[in-house]
Amino acid sequence: DGNSGWRCPACQNASTQVPKTYTCFCGKVHNPEWNRNEIPHSCGELCGKKRQCLDCPHLCNILCHPGPCPSCPAFVTKTCECGQTSHSVRCGQSTKIHCSNVCGNTLNCGKHSCTQVCHAGKCSPCQLTVQQVCYCGSTFKEVLCGTKEEFSDGFGNFSCQNICGKKLNCGRHNCTQVCHPQPCQLCPRLPQVVYRCPCGQTPLSKLLELGCVERKICTDPIPSCGKTCGKPLSCGSYEFIHTCESLCHEGDCRPCSHTSNIYCRCGFKKKEVPCALLRNKAAITFMCDKRCNKKRSCGRHKCNEVCCVDTEHKCSLVCGRKLNCGLHRCEEPCHRGSCQTCWQTSFDELTCYCGESVIYPPVPCGTQPPECKKTCTRPHDCDHPVYHSCHSEEKCPPCTYLTQKWCMGKHELRSNIPCHLTDISCGLRCNQMLKCGMHKCKRICHKGECLIDEECKQPCVIPRLYCNHPCMAPCHPSSPCPTTSCCAKVDLQCECGRRKESMICSEASNTYQRIAAISIATKLTDLQLGDSVEISRLITKKEMKQARLQCDEECLALQRNRRLAEALEIDDNSDPFNIRSSGPKYSDLLKEDARKDLKFVSDIEKEMRMLVEAVNKGKHTKKSHCYPPMNRDHRRIIHELAQVYGIESVSYDNEPKRNVVITAVKGKSICPSNTLTSVLDKEMQSRPPPPIPHYKQTDKSGGNSGLSKPLKEEPVIDYFDVQD
């Protein structure tokens, strides 16, 4: 039956424990021998085991046998349930005996007997009603016989909780106690009971000595001592107790003339009221306007009750949070912790989209559709083979089949593009003609029109009339080029070609003043008549190109040396005057920075020389090196040294992680013959010793008394430290 245990293969009897020894059925003989005349596994003796019936005292009287012992065949005398009759029955009979007589046992009240026919168990409580009267005799009620109700002693007397009202022993006053079982107390005004004045401060014996009349009966007035009563009143507080201010008197004290402080329900505010109103405290209770800021039992909402006296702060709102199913909300009172699982259940089958996998009812709310391993059968936008399984989401995963597609600008046909990708950029420049008809789009391959609501702002490329430089004004397809000065850079050199300088085109031409003078002199008549004069026609292109720099003294010296070399027939490549071997020129600011941090500059030059040698000897045309992040001054030193070595340098990232990347180009980068550190060493050796400083003294009246302070250097702007 699934339970643990062992079943005997001979008698099929099940036991909870596996036996370790082999015995007969009754357990008396170990390893019983086989006898063909007896039952197998039996010892042949009487069984003698106790029967399963609990109230049977007889042992089993049959031979050793398999299985449970049969019921006891002996006859015994048993009484019925009520005990009035007896019958002879088999000992193993488990049925109880009932006679037809009335029970007659005494009920719980102790007065009446049971009227039921012979029955099992205890008798029912007495169902008769009796009339009870209270102790004072003013109230009657009917109750079940033998019941013990509140204020009842079980024998007919109870307290009605009203004033007793019985006449006291004096015969003149009534009892003022609540209905009570004991005899009424003595009259509290009897002469033998009252020993003091009404306020209790003075014994009556002293008042009698002073001439007061002796009391003989309870109705005689109690003499007054004439002092202030002084009895504590119900008003006041623990710190200041109010007392009666009237003279010694009988009866209740008069209302107090003082004021008392009463607190609101929560005890936050207090209010001062006359003590005369404190007799009815329920009428003068008030609530403050303080709102409770404590959290409710849910831990989410605040109590916000005015003058709150609650200790538990139970939340009366509905929880309303979404359950785990995501469809229904919690309808229980707001609580802490997680909400219970959704109790709603569906009795419909829950299947996947194709219907192959099924979850049979009942299906708890929020159960996801079953997982299906079949191929998705939903309609797809493309006709490519489907590789994903059946799913419950309405939208299928994107198709990843590799196809060929044109880029957005129709520049090239791209291969190995997933089917779901629509907008593909080839990374090339768009190069489509803009609306102006002069320029092409410079954006990377993009979608849609090049310029939607904008006008072309590229610089105009129409050559100027006299210098042939482009106009460079914003694109103006429908209007002529504006007459502005040309800002293009032109390279000027002297006659010998030694001096070279870049200047703005408009500044390079020194003929504008002559043009203006000629135009004013020749066209004076036209100007007086109001006509306009175009001065651009008064200068030719040949004259504008003839603008050159003037040779200086060094140029003249080179020309003299050249003529001397020709006269002496000296080869130009021999460089007798050591002109070409002159080292690089370092700026004074760079030298000053190198003196401050010579080790840093030597390390930078060593790295640059190694980079230039590596790119000149290697196969690659470019090689780069990235320096760690450093401050602005160190970056400026690297930029200036890179110019000397012919290396490109660019700063990247933002502070404080801004760094410099240098790139050496084969054929462009060089290693100068004299490094900056060697130049500084030569200058130090050739420099004379520094003079002894003279201190300027002043008189006591004032003036400069020490070394003059050096002027503050102007901050150097790092023009190379720009974002790439």
UniProtKB/TrEMBL annotation:
Q: Which GO terms describe its cellular component?
A: nucleus
**Disordered: region residues:** 682-724
| Tagged with keyword Repressor | yes
Which UniProt keywords are present, listed alphabetically?
A: DNA-binding, Metal-binding, Nucleus, Phosphoprotein, Repeat, Repressor, Transcription, Transcription regulation, Transferase, Ubl conjugation pathway, Zinc, Zinc-finger
Please report the name of this protein according to its UniProt entry. Transcriptional repressor NF-X1
Source species: Tauraco erythrolophus (Red-crested turaco)
Example GO BP: negative regulation of transcription by RNA polymerase II
Q: Where is the R3H domain?
A: 598-666
- The superkingdom of the source organism is Eukaryota
Mind listing the GO molecular function terms for this protein? DNA-binding transcription factor activity, RNA polymerase II-specific; RNA polymerase II transcription regulatory region sequence-specific DNA binding; transferase activity; zinc ion binding
Q: Per the annotation, which location comes first and is thus the protein's main one?
A: nucleus
- Protein localization: Nucleus
The family classification in the record reads: Belongs to the NFX1 family.
Q: Which PANTHER family match?
A: NUCLEAR TRANSCRIPTION FACTOR, X-BOX BINDING 1 NFX1, TRANSCRIPTIONAL REPRESSOR NF-X1
Q: Which InterPro entries match?
A: NFX1_fam, R3H_dom, R3H_dom_sf, R3H_NF-X1, Znf_NFX1
